[in-house]
Structure formats: C-alpha cells, structure tokens
Amino acid sequence: MSFEQTQAYDDQLVTLLEALWGEGYLSPGGDEETARVLEGLDLDGKRMLDIGCGTGGATLFIAERYGADVLGIDVEAGVVEKASKAAADRGLRDRARFQAIQPGPLPFSDASFDVVFSKDAIIHIEDKHAIFAEVHRVLKPGGTFAASDWMRAEDGPMSDRLRHYIEAEGLGFGAASPDRYFAALRAAGFETVSYRDRTAWYRDETLKEIAALDGPLRASLTAKVGHDFLEHELDVWRALAAVLQSSEFGPGHWRATKAV
Questions:
Q1: pLDDT tens for residues 125-144?
Q2: I need a surface site. Which of 25, 31, 104, 219 has the fewest CB within 10 A?
Q3: Exposed, middle or buried, 70 (CB in 10 Å: 0-12/13-18/19+)?
Q4: Residue 144, exposed/middle/buried by CB under 10 A (0-12, 13-18, 19+)?
Q5: 100 bridge partner residues
Q6: How far apart are CA 119 and CA 146, in angstroms?
C-alpha cells in the first residue's frame, strides 16, 4: 500500500488552496463540509484517526467542535509541521496531535481508534483493498469510518477530458469508482457501507473558485505564488470544471461500520 501522489503539497500549492478553502484546508468545503461527513456521530471523548490530515484544518475543527481526541497523519512532513504549529497556536495540543508517517501499513495496533476519518486523501492510495483493510484493523469493534473522497464515475478507460484533468492535477493513479470502494470496504469486513454523491454541490462551487482565482484573489496570489503557477492552477480548475460538468469525476461522502 502506498500513496501514489505525484504533486507535492509544497508551499505554493498550500498557499493557493488555503486562500480558496480556509486556513488548514487542502480540500473544499472547510468546516461545513467536514461537519457533513461527520453528521450524526457522537465524537465527544472518542479517539479518532485522520488519514491524510494535510495542514490540519479538519483535525483541529473536530477536536475543538466535537471534543474528540484526534491524531492526524500524513506522508508529507512539511504539512504535518505546519499542522502541529497551528494546534499549538490554538491551544489544542492536548486533543489534536500530528504525525508524519511512511507509506505502507498504518503504524498503529489493532482496535486503536473509535473513528477513522479522512478528507479527500484516499484518492492518493492506489490499493483500496489494502487501505480499507488497515482502516478496519485499527478500528475498535463497532467503530466508524467516515470520509469524503474524490471519485471517478466509472472504472476503466478514461475519456481524454478526464485524463487531461488527472494529469494536470497530479493526482496519481488512485482515482476509482464508488463500485470499487464498495467492493474494497466490504472485502475488508465492514458491516454497513453507504455513499452520498456530492458532485452537484461542488460543480457550482468550482465555478465560484475559478471566478475568485481570476478575480479578487489574483493580485495577492500572483505576489505569493507567481504568475505562472497561478495560471497553471487556473487551467487545472477549468479542467476540473469540465469533468464535474460531465459527472465523470467529483467528491462524495462515505460511511462504514465495523461489526461489534
């Protein structure tokens, strides 16, 4: 099992994404979308794992809003360092901790967590069966997996439009359909599995983001990340808008439960 990510979350990209989505967020929707993923769960005092925590926005929100004890993990040491600083600045180091890990099996004992969460990061892991087997292993009996992720509508050959977007974005080889996720989650042993498509929501949001990048945010981002980088990212966003419009690609929410 490994992260097949080909585009690093370097300072330029982090700066641009946080300008769009809020400090600590490297995927869309911020606190509001994170709350939707966790809707209906009682997290007070629960031990949680956040896979692919990035710069820590969701981890910190969960610890602060829900009273959970959250460990965020990521394969990129730079974003983990930034997340740890944010936890200290917000007085949350006792409930939100961060750890850089190596690609591969999760470095935790069986039945270590009440909830495993992830915000748009599992797309970077090619082997869905391996990661969901690991998620199942580290969950306590009766534990919950709650996540959002980027989904292909179907597996198999990509259209030129989708291939262009994925190559421009640098998403690696991990994009897969809901059918593939369902199969991997069930094979891992999860008792119940559900999925909610969020493509329609993000289709509209993407158009607003393009307008912001090409309008109010242009001057400040050009100064921070450079003209060429911003133009490249605008091209990426336009390619994303195209595959959202065709419903070939988009975000969705997952929920699965481990048997007691």
A1: 999 999 999 999 999 999 99
A2: 219
A3: buried
A4: buried
A5: 74
A6: 9
Q: What residues form DSSP beta bridges with 72?
A: 50, 98
182 closest CA partner among 221, 145, 141: 145
Q: Which amino acid is at 229?
A: F
Give the C-alpha separation, 72 to 74, whole Å.
Answer: 7
Written as one string, the DSSP assignment of 201-258 is HHHHHHHHHHHHHTTTTHHHHHHHH-HHHHHHHHHHHHHHHHHHHTTSEEEEEEEEEE
Residue with tokens 């179907």, as numbered in its chain: 154
pLDDT digits (tens, 9 = 90+) for 27-58: 999 999 999 999 999 999 999 999 999 999 99
- By three-state DSSP, how is residue 146 classified? strand
